[in-house]
Specification:
209 residues; alpha/beta; Rossmann fold; six-stranded parallel β-sheet; 14% strand
Length: 209
């Protein structure tokens, strides 16, 4: 694996965790998975987004920072590669979509301080899927508090991701997966691995499956 610290990003239901699990198994790498079940505000947010948006975003920001700070700064004799199904930037992306301007400005100040203390990924792989496919994947995993996520919310998160990725001086591989099922289709997974293992310049590189 060419990249020692790889981040898989994408919308809700894009397949981030599934790809991290496959990559860590193939390359015997360390995986960092987000503990979404630990956020007590998330179910409340989906019921009353305006009331709980700031609380849920601040809670995620704190939890993500502490986990990444602990995981990424630990030296390991057993793993050469680290695969994560999120980055701290995920907090900024969701906050931009969910918070009012004054709340976002305060949130952004905290984010910038935390972000300066974390290493940058060697490559971000963004998994792009259409909203209809995202909804199918969300339904399959069966989390009660996600079952009523509206299409326009997923579209808003998608737009926030794309806006963010275009603005960053990072190496980004944008994979438009359509209906690609890399979990059950080994050829698709191996193609993704081949793409990930190539050198990239700073900016967004797009590949359509």
């Amino acid at each position: 694996m060419q990249h020692s610290y790889l981040v898989i990003e994408g919308n809700i239901g894009a397949g981030k965790t599934s790809l991290v699990n496959l990559l860590s198994e193939k390359y015997n790498g360390k995986k960092v998975l987000e503990g979404f079940n630990d956020n007590p505000f998330l179910p409340k947010f989906y019921e009353q987004p305006e009331r709980y948006a700031f609380a849920v975003e601040m809670s995620f920001l704190s939890d993500r920072y502490h986990q990444l700070n602990n995981e990424l700064r630990q030296q390991s004799l057993f793993y050469q590669n680290t695969f994560s199904d999120y980055s701290l930037s995920k907090s900024l992306i969701f906050a931009r979509a969910n918070l009012e301007k004054d709340e976002f400005d305060l949130f952004n100040k905290m984010y910038q301080v935390m972000m300066s203390n974390l290493p940058k990924p060697d490559l971000i792989v963004y998994l792009h899927r259409g909203v209809e496919e995202l909804q199918k994947n969300i339904l399959k995993r069966g989390r009660d508090y996600e079952k009523n996520i509206p299409d326009d919310y997923l579209e808003k998160i998608q737009d926030s991701y794309i806006q963010f990725l275009k603005q960053q001086e990072l190496k980004v591989l944008f994979l438009d997966l359509n209906e690609t099922n890399f979990i059950n289709d080994r050829k698709s997974f191996e193609k993704i691995c081949e793409l990930i293992n190539q050198p990239y310049k700073t900016g967004v590189q797009s590949v359509i499956f």
